[in-house]
C-alpha cells in the first residue's frame, strides 16, 4: 500500500462496530437466499431471488492454478454494480480468503470500464417506490465488501483499464495493488449529483498528498492513469498492450507474498507521461486553497488566486464548485476531514450513517434532483435546495453525521477480522 496512506492514522478513536465472527463465515452459504443485516439475516425480496440466475453471469469466474480472475461483465452499463453483483463478489472474496488453494485474486472489467459505480437508476427507483431500506441493505453489503477488501489477507490485483468511478473505486482502490493504464479514467463525481463520495472515499481521499483528496472529492475532477499513479490511487502503470502478458505471469506466481506479486507487476510496468496541464502540477495552489476550513473559504481563496493570475484551470475549478450541490459539498468536506483522523472501518460506519440520511431525503432531497437533472432528463440544470452554501447550516450538516432516529435502524456492523498482514492492520 502507498506509504502516505498509512501516515495519517488517528489515535484514540473508537473501534468500528464489529459483528460476531460467525457472520462472515456464514455469508458464503446464506448470501444467495438472504440479505445480510447486522447480526441477523432477513428474507430476500422475490425480485432478488428471481434475478440470481441472470446476475450470476455478471461476475465471470476463471480459475487459473492458484489465481482467481473475477471479471465484471455488464459492459453496456459500464459494469455498474447491482445488488446481486455486490453479493456475489462478497461471497467469492469470503470463500477465497479461507481457501488455501487460492493465493491471488485478480479483478477486472469487461469493455471500456472497470466499473463506473453503483446502479444508481435501480437505487433511485427502489427509493421512489418506498423501499429505501432495501437500498440501505445494498450499502450495508457493499460497505462490508469494501471492509473485507481493505483488510484482505491475500493480494488483490485490480486491473483498472478504463472508467473507475464511485462504487468502482470502492471495489478497487482499497485493495493491495491497483494497476492503471493509458485508458484509465478515475473520478468521484458525487457532489454534482447531490451526493458525496462514499465507498470509503473519506479514507483514501484523505490520504492522498496534501489536500489533493479534498480537491478531487469536491470538484469531481477526472484523472488519467498517469495522474492516478503519481498521487497514489494506483500502485502501478502498465500499458494495456501488456495486460494479457501480466495476467498470464501473475497466474503462474503461486504465491501470496506481496513483494513477489509487486515484482511481477513491475516487470510489465513503465513510467507514464504526465500531461503538462495536469491538476497535479498545481498541487501548491490546491494546498493553499483546499486546506481552508469551509467550502466558502475554499472558493474565496480560489477567487483570490484568479485575480492574481489568469488561469483557465482555476476558473473551471470555481465553476465546478458552484455547479455542485451546496449540501453535497459541505458534507463531502467534513467527511474527508474526519477521514483524516479515522481508520477505514470508522470511515465506513460513518459514511453508512450519511448514506442512510441522504437516501431518506432528509434534510435535503438533492440526490433525487441530481439524478433527474444529470442522468434522467439530462438538462444538466439541477435546482438544488438549499440553493446556496450560506443556506446550508452547520446543524443541517451535523444531522448527516448523527445516528438515525428511525425504528429498526442500526449502525453498520463490520465483521471481525483476524490474522491480518501489517499493511491491513495499519488501516484500522
UniProtKB/TrEMBL annotation:
InterPro entries in alphabetical order: ClpP/crotonase-like_dom_sf, ECH_dom, HIBYL-CoA-H
EC number from the UniProt entry: 3.1.2.4
Enzyme category, top tier: hydrolase
Domain Enoyl-CoA hydratase/isomerase: 68-401
One Pfam family this sequence matches: ECH_2
MF (Gene Ontology): 3-hydroxyisobutyryl-CoA hydrolase activity
Catalytic activity: 3-hydroxy-2-methylpropanoyl-CoA + H2O = 3-hydroxy-2-methylpropanoate + CoA + H(+)
UniProt entry tagged with the keyword rRNA processing: no
Keywords for this protein: Hydrolase
Pathway this chain belongs to: Amino-acid degradation; L-valine degradation
GO BP term (any one): L-valine catabolic process
The keyword Magnesium is annotated on this UniProt entry: no
Matches recorded under SUPFAM superfamilies: ClpP/crotonase
Similarity field: Belongs to the enoyl-CoA hydratase/isomerase family.
Function (record text): Hydrolyzes 3-hydroxyisobutyryl-CoA (HIBYL-CoA), a saline catabolite. Has high activity toward isobutyryl-CoA. Could be an isobutyryl-CoA dehydrogenase that functions in valine catabolism.
UniProt name for this protein: 3-hydroxyisobutyryl-CoA hydrolase
Source organism of this protein record: Lithocarpus litseifolius
Amino acid at each position: 500500500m502507498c506509504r502516505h496512506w498509512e501516515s495519517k492514522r488517528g489515535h484514540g478513536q473508537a473501534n468500528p462496530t464489529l459483528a460476531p465472527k460467525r457472520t462472515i463465515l456464514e455469508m458464503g452459504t446464506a448470501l444467495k437466499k438472504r440479505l445480510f443485516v447486522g447480526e441477523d439475516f432477513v428474507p430476500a425480496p422475490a425480485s432478488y431471488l428471481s434475478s440470481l440466475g441472470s446476475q450470476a453471469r455478471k461476475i465471470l469466474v476463471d480459475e487459473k492454478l492458484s489465481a482467481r480472475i473475477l471479471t465484471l461483465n455488464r459492459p453496456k452499463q459500464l459494469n455498474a454494480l447491482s445488488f446481486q453483483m455486490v453479493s456475489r463478489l462478497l461471497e467469492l472474496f469470503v470463500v477465497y480468503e479461507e481457501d488455501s488453494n487460492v493465493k491471488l485474486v485478480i479483478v477486472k472489467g469487461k469493455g471500456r470500464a472497470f466499473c463506473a459505480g453503483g446502479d444508481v437508476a435501480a437505487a433511485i427507483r427502489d427509493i421512489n417506490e418506498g423501499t429505501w431500506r432495501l437500498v440501505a441493505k445494498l450499502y450495508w453489503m457493499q460497505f462490508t465488501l469494501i471492509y473485507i477488501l481493505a483488510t484482505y489477507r491475500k493480494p488483490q490485483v485490480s486491473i483498472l483499464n478504463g472508467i473507475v468511478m464511485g462504487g468502482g473505486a470502492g471495489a478497487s482502490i482499497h485493495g493491495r495493488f491497483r494497476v492503471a493504464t493509458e485508458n484509465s479514467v478515475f473520478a468521484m463525481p458525487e457532489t454534482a449529483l447531490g451526493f458525496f463520495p462514499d465507498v470509503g472515499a473519506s479514507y483514501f481521499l484523505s490520504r492522498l498528498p496534501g489536500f489533493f483528496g479534498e480537491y478531487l472529492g469536491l470538484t469531481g475532477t477526472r484523472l488519467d492513469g498517469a495522474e492516478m499513479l503519481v498521487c497514489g490511487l494506483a500502485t502501478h502503470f502498465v500499458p494495456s498492450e501488456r495486460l494479457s502478458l501480466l495476467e498470464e505471469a501473475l497466474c503462474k506466481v503461486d504465491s501470496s507474498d506481496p513483494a513477489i506479486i509487486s515484482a511481477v507487476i513491475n516487470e510489465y510496468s513503465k513510467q507514464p507521461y504526465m500531461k503538462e496541464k495536469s491538476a497535479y502540477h498545481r498541487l501548491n495552489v490546491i494546498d493553499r486553497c483546499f486546506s481552508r476550513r469551509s467550502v466558502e473559504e475554499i472558493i474565496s481563496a480560489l477567487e483570490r488566486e484568479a485575480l492574481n493570475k489568469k488561469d483557465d484551470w482555476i476558473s473551471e475549478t470555481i465553476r465546478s464548485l458552484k455547479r455542485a450541490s451546496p449540501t453535497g459539498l459541505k458534507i463531502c468536506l467534513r467527511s474527508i476531514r474526519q477521514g483524516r483522523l479515522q481508520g477505514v472501518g470508522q470511515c465506513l460506519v460513518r459514511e453508512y450513517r450519511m448514506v442512510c440520511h441522504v437516501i431518506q431525503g432528509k434534510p435535503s432531497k438533492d440526490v433525487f434532483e441530481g439524478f433527474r437533472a444529470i442522468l434522467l432528463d439530462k438538462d444538466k440544470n439541477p435546482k438544488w435546495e438549499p440553493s446556496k452554501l450560506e443556506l446550508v447550516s452547520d446543524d443541517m450538516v451535523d444531522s448527516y453525521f448523527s445516528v438515525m432516529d428511525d425504528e429498526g435502524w442500526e449502525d453498520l456492523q463490520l465483521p471481525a477480522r483476524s490474522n491480518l498482514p501489517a499493511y491491513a492492520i495499519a488501516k484500522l
